[in-house]
């Protein structure tokens, strides 16, 4: 007849106490009784393994530990103990047991007090192995570098992803996904021959923007409430002038009251591959972020376009994140990014930050594909009776 729950608990407590008081042989006998009379108890095998080890009975200890993990593969204490034994033997496979223990711990709502030190050890050992692994990679790849020169930026990023120094963010458009386009956070400016022309006009564009900032009503909250649409929170930015915009083009319509005041800006825009979708694009705006403002993380609507920023007024302390890369704007230095990858912005300065924002076609799309995308959204608008939720 097997032991009842009370007897099992009593024997476990006795065996643990014997281990703690240095009575390894008595603990071995106690846990052997548990193994014989209370089969299926992983903790009994784990205690037996520890007793065998203290008695120098290493083969029996290893067998008992393996038996514990067979019975309970997700036993955090047993996983860490297995890692310790393999690590002491110089086996690189120890890392997999420490990591498995952390994975199991991560699924718990809270780490029990008696496991906190065990989990901390697993974390320390995983960090140690990760550092050793990364050092080995760099040493081995230095040999490749001697023959081929430094790695490309995308290979360097792949190495950061592999070693956990970077996180991979996926394109997640809120409305429409065009498949088989590469996931790139910030694009290489060398792909866009017109970017130098845009940057060269920075001073003229800034001067025109400054005229508009002095006119009441030119800049309005970027997100304005609409009685016909659900008033979702949107990070507290609805009708909030902390993030304001002055549109030259909005949803494919030229805003003459503003655009007429910006001939130099208009001249540059005429040379760019702006997205053209009737009723939706292009949108071109001066985006103003007030001191202390934060645009929370969000995703754009479609991945068939790229968003261009030309910084015009940038005090120190203004940052922009796309995926896992954070940059600071620099006046007159444009960049392009995929806004369907999670992104956010901060102005931690005491002054306004102003950026010219516009949208251009993804360079990978053919003229035919661009025409189909435009036709698709025109069809959606006709069938749904309006544009719906849309923004640059």
Biggest sheet descriptor: 7 strands, antiparallel
Number of strands: 11
> Uncertain segments of ≥5 residues (pLDDT<50)?
none
Which class do the helix and strand fractions yield? alpha+beta
Taken in chain order, the helices and strands follow as HHHHHHHHHHEEEHHEEEEEEEEH
The top-level CATH class of the largest domain is Mainly Beta
Portion of residues in beta strands equals 5-15%
Q: What is the mean predicted local confidence, pLDDT?
A: 92
Task: Explain what this protein looks like in three dimensions.
- The chain has 392 residues and is of the alpha+beta class.
- It folds into 2 domains: 110 residues, Serine Threonine Protein Phosphatase 5, Tetratricopeptide repeat (Alpha Horseshoe); 196 residues, Jelly Rolls (Sandwich), CATH 2.60.120.330.
- 45% of the residues lie in helices and 15% in strands.
- It has 13 helices and 11 strands.
- The strands form 2 sheets. Strands 1, 2, 3, 4, 6, 9 and 11 form a 7-stranded antiparallel sheet that branches. It has a 4-stranded antiparallel sheet with strand order 5-10-7-8, with no helix packed on it.
- It is elongated.
- The N and C termini lie far apart (73 Å).
């Amino acid at each position: 007849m097997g032991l009842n729950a009370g007897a099992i608990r009593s024997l476990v407590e006795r065996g643990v106490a014997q281990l703690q008081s240095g009575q390894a042989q008595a603990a071995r006998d106690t846990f052997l009784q548990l193994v014989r009379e209370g089969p299926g108890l992983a903790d009994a095998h784990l205690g037996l393994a520890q007793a065998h080890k203290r008695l120098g009975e290493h083969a029996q200890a290893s067998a008992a530990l393996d038996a514990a993990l067979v019975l309970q593969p997700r036993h955090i204490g047993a996983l860490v103990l297995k890692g310790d034994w393999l690590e002491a033997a110089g086996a690189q496979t120890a890392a997999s047991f420490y990591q498995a223990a952390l994975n199991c711990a991560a699924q718990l709502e809270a780490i029990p007090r008696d496991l906190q030190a065990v989990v901390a050890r697993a974390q320390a050992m995983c960090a140690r192995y990760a550092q050793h692994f990364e050092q080995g990679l760099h040493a081995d790849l230095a040999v490749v570098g001697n023959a081929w020169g430094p790695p490309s930026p995308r290979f360097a990023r792949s190495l950061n992803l592999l070693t956990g120094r970077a996180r991979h963010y996926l394109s997640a458009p809120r409305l429409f996904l065009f498949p088989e386009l590469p996931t790139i956070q910030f694009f290489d400016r060398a792909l866009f021959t017109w970017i130098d022309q845009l940057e060269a006009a920075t001073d003229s564009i800034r001067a025109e923007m400054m005229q508009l900032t002095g006119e009441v009503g030119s800049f309005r909250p970027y997100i304005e409430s609409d009685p016909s649409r659900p008033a979702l929170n949107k990070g507290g930015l609805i009708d909030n002038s902390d993030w304001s915009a002055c549109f030259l083009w909005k949803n494919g319509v030229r805003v003459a009251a503003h655009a007429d005041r910006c001939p130099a800006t208009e001249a540059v825009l005429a040379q760019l591959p702006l997205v053209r979708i009737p009723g939706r694009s292009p949108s071109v705006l001066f985006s103003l972020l007030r001191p202390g403002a934060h645009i929370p993380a969000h995703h754009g609507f479609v991945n068939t376009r790229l968003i261009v920023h030309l910084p015009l007024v940038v005090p120190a302390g203004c940052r922009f994140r796309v995926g896992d890369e954070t940059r600071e704007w620099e006046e007159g230095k444009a960049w392009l990014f995929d806004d369907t990858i999670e992104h956010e912005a901060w102005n931690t300065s005491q002054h306004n930050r102003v950026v010219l924002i516009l949208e251009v076609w993804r360079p990978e799309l053919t003229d035919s594909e661009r025409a189909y995308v435009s036709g698709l959204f025109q069809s959606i608008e006709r069938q749904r009776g309006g544009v719906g939720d849309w923004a640059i």
